[in-house]
Structure formats: structure tokens, C-alpha cells
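Researcher: We're teaching a course module on how sequence relates to structure. For the next exercise, students receive a sequence and then see the predicted structure as C-alpha cells, so they can try to spot secondary structure elements on their own. Here is the exercise chain.
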Amino acid sequence: MSWQCARKAASVIGAEDRRRLQKLAKAMRAAVKAGDIAAYNDISQESHHVIRELGDQRTAVEVLERLRYPSVRYQFQVSLLPGRIEEGLAEHVSVIEAVASGDGDRAEAAMRAHLSSLVGSLQKLSELGGLPRTTLGRTPAS
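Model: And here is the predicted structure for the students to work with:
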């Protein structure tokens, strides 16, 4: 369903919304560079929200909102997987660039790839038995 929103968002995006998404991509890059997982997660959620808003697919949005709340508790844990925020950043930027380009096929493909990767990360998290060992507040280079 998120891919439907991305496809539709690409077909209707205007200059102001394009700048809004590009600003989110820039902020997400900065959060990853700083190792700020909380900010990364917040910006990730905002980028999905903007794409859903632009896509204006009411039924899809309603279903996604119902699914979002139970999944929030795993979102932060997934972000702690080694390399995941860097992967997520690349995926989000790909989705944002595709939506901003106005290419619905590309936007749908980018969103599908992002969601597929996220499912893989959830599987890794499950295999690890939940939260991986890490020290909060440290960057990967620390």
C-alpha cells in the first residue's frame, strides 16, 4: 500500500512538496552522519507521512496508520542493527528522489525495495532474539 501512495505522490507532486521532501532527505543525512538514531527515526516517519499525504489514498493510509502504531516499538530496534540506518538512509533518499522526479514506476519500485529491505531487517532482528547489543548514543565509528 505504501507503494501505491509513492506512485500517486509522484504523479501529483509540485515544487513546494518536492522541496519539502528534499529538505527531509537532507535532515535525514545529517541525522545519520551525527549517529542520531532518534532523529533519523522521526524524519523517516515524517517522510512516509508526507508521501502518504501526497498520495491521498485514503484506504491505504487508514490501513497503514493502523499498522504503524504496533510497529513503532520495533522501528527503533531495527535502527540499531549494524548498518541499518545507513541502508535506510539510502532507501529513503531513493524513494524521495523517485517521488520528486514525478516517475510513478520508479517511486513504486523504490518504495517496494525499501519495504522489502525493512522486512529483511525485521527478520534479522527476530533471529537475534530482539534488541541487538549496542551502546545508545554512540556512532558506528565510536
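Model: If you want an answer key for the exercise: The two ends are 38 Å apart (CA to CA). The first helix runs from residue 2 to 12.
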